[in-house]
Amino acid sequence: MEDEVIKKFLYVNRKAPYGTIYALESLEVVLIGAAFDQDVSLAFIDDGVYQLKKNQQTSVSSGIGVKDFSKTYRALEGYDVEKLYVDKKSMEERGLSEDDFLVDVQVFDEAQMAELMEQQDVVLSF
Amino acid sequence: MLHTVNKSPFDKNSLENCLRFARKGHSILLFEDGIYGALKGTRFETLIAEGLKSSTIYVLVPDLEARGMRMDNVIDGVKATDYAGFVDLSAENKTVQAWL
Fold first, then answer.
1. Alpha carbon of A87: minimum distance to chain B alpha carbons (Å)
2. Which domain CATH number covers A91?
3. Portion 20-79 of B in contact with A at CB < 8 A
4. Is the confidence at residue A2, as pLDDT, over 70?
5. Cβ atoms of residues A44 and A52 within 8 Å
6. Average pLDDT of the segment spanning A37-46
7. Percentage of residues in chain A with pLDDT exceeding 70?
């Protein structure tokens, strides 16, 4: 389409996975946005950083018996969703480092994250 | 008495309040997002260490593993339990206080 409009979308994730449905719902909406060829970024703040923790195991036999949707973060690249940002303070106060994450992320301080938010056309919060 | 905490200490003050009211000899079970309170290296580690002096603290392993964690990540002294153990704790204790 010649008159295609591309907007900058930022998805702000602030909830841990599994305890509530927010993390999974966010991911679903991210994939919808990506399917419409929009400019998508994801921010992980507060307990949202836990969504990216490696080695999530949710099997029916020995685990909580729900879908391990963390694998989907690794598939985002295939949808040209490659801009993932983690809040430094949230990561550090949880004793986490970049090595704990299952995908490559950029670690941002408050100033960088604030600037990212200002650049957006749409900010969706989960 | 059994206290249960199923919220992240970063999101809600349930864990802090639970520890404020738990008495000597009580059991505390951390499950669902409550497991984040049991982990080493967070800013709640000293609070848990203090709680362990008077209470027995348990963590529900399936919830731990779902969130990418293992017993290696859990503060020393916190005990592992599973769904059957959760049932036993509920049955053994006369009252259960859920810190939602």
1. 14
2. 3.40.1260.10
3. 32-33, 36, 39-43, 62-63, 65-70
4. no
5. yes
6. 96
7. 98
- B72, B38 in Cβ contact below 8 A? no
In a domain, A1, yes or no: no
Of the two residues A5 and A119, the one the predictor is more confident about is: A119
CB B11 within 8 A of CB B38: no
Which residue is closest to A95 within chain B, CA to CA? B41
Q: How many domains does chain A have?
A: 1
Contact A47 B33 (CB under 8 A): yes
**Is residue A3 over pLDDT 80?**
no
Q: What is the ipTM of this complex?
A: 0.89
**Partner-chain residue, chosen from B41, B42, B66, that has the shortest CB–CB distance to A58:** B66
CA distance readout (Å), A37 to A6, A65, A77: 7, 33, 13
Residue A2 included in any domain: no
User: pLDDT tens digits, residue range B35-48?
Assistant: 999 999 999 999 99
Report the candidate in B48, B62, B19, B13 with the shortest Cα–Cα distance to residue A95: B48
> CATH number for the domain including B78?
3.40.1260.10
Does A28 fall in a domain? yes
Q: A3 in a domain, yes or no?
A: no
Which structural domain range is residue A98 located in? 8-125
